[in-house]
Write a structure and sequence with these properties.
331 residues, alpha+beta, Sulfite Oxidase, Chain A, domain 2, five-stranded mixed sheet, binds ligand MTE
């Protein structure tokens, strides 16, 4: 960043997701959790993608989730799973777009725990299973716009971050939410590199109203199955109206704070990456325009350049969060 088959709503995910790229069988959604979620999801249409991979070594767990409601669907063509899982930014595994898929399998994601800390009444270290247990999973089809000016349309599976935060009872001092990614150099070759620009672990943050916004989700899956490691397994943030680097992967800590928390790319180059980083075609990156984006997959002959929309097309839902703010100054 610094230097350097159509998924249709009316078919089962398993019928249209290419299976050959699946990695890492995982069972973090255990039988009991499924039963609990089924109860919670009864009012919605449920989809259980079939595990039918032919690749014995590499596949992901199917998830039980309710399909995207009209509010969270998109008329745009979904990015094929193959592209969404092989063209990635996950600097913990290297800076090349192909590095995450190649190396992220080294990351152990089970067991996994998440620290809930700071301005909450119920802090603690929780197993992922306990973090997920009460939440019904739902599909959200969102645009993902990277600050590097490429974009995708991805069907995520997750649940609102607000629902999780409320469970731990934020105090009145909680003004921001700080997130941290796993720090494990033994499994993350990018963290071992002597040429890295990021001060590990990768950290991100949101204002509390952004974190509580109904569009903000924690994702555990995509295309109907658990997240591939390279996409941020087992738990990542998705904030669709912000540049992709805000959507921190493989989260191990969520902390509510009174002060605005530091963020990795802002620490690396404050003049290039702001805390807010709302998608904004009118505010250029110092080294390139943000007016358009390259929608993946694309090629030399089919560049697929489209106009970038304010707040990545979610302005009607989120612009009010920034009423009165100078978005050129708070970029
Ligand atoms: N999270 C961590 N921990 N490390 C990273 O390097 N890259 C970010 C974000 N989350 C990153 C991260 C960037 S720049 C983008 S564009 C998105 O992840 C990419 O998500 P994807 O690979 O699932 O498309």
């Amino acid at each position: 960043m610094l230097y350097k088959p159509n998924y249709k709503d009316d078919v089962l995910t398993s019928e249209i997701t290419p299976e050959t790229d699946y990695i890492n069988r995982r069972q973090f959604i255990r039988g009991s959790t499924k039963v609990a979620m089924a109860g919670l999801c009864m009012r919605h249409q449920l989809v259980l993608a079939e595990a039918s991979s032919t690749d014995s070594q590499v596949q992901q767990s199917p998830l039980l989730f309710s399909k995207a409601t009209s509010q969270h669907r998109s008329n745009e063509k979904h990015t094929p799973f193959k592209d969404a899982s092989s063209y990635n930014n996950f600097y913990e595994f290297g800076t090349d777009k192909t590095d995450p898929k190649r190396y992220a399998n080294a990351m152990t994601i089970s067991p996994w725990s998440v620290r809930i800390a700071g301005e909450v009444k119920k802090p603690g270290d929780y197993f992922l299973e306990d973090i997920l247990k009460p939440h019904a999973l739902e599909e959200r089809i969102y645009r993902l716009r990277c600050v590097e000016a490429w974009s995708m349309v991805i069907p995520w599976v997750g649940f609102p971050l607000a629902d999780l935060l409320k469970r731990f009872s934020p105090t009145s001092k909680a003004k921001y939410v700080a997130f941290e990614t796993l720090s494990r150099p033994s499994e993350m070759r990018g963290q071992r590199s002597r040429f890295g620009t990021i001060d590990w672990p990768y950290v991100e943050g949101l204002r509390i109203d952004e974190a509580m916004h109904p569009l903000t989700i924690l994702a555990v899956g995509m295309y109907g199955k658990s997240l591939p490691n390279q996409n941020g397994a087992p738990l990542r943030l998705i904030v669709p109206w912000k540049y992709g680097f805000k959507s921190i992967k493989s989260i191990t800590s969520i902390s509510l704070t009174e002060q605005q928390p530091p963020t990795s790319w802002n620490k690396t180059a404050a003049n290039e990456y702001g805390f807010y980083s709302n998608v904004n075609p009118e505010v250029s990156h110092p080294r390139w325009s943000q007016a358009t984006e390259r929608r993946l997959p694309n090629s030399l002959f089919k560049p697929n350049r489209i106009a970038t929309l304010p707040f990545n097309g979610y302005a009607d839902q989120v612009a009010s969060l920034y009423a009165g703010m100078d978005l050129k100054r708070y970029f």
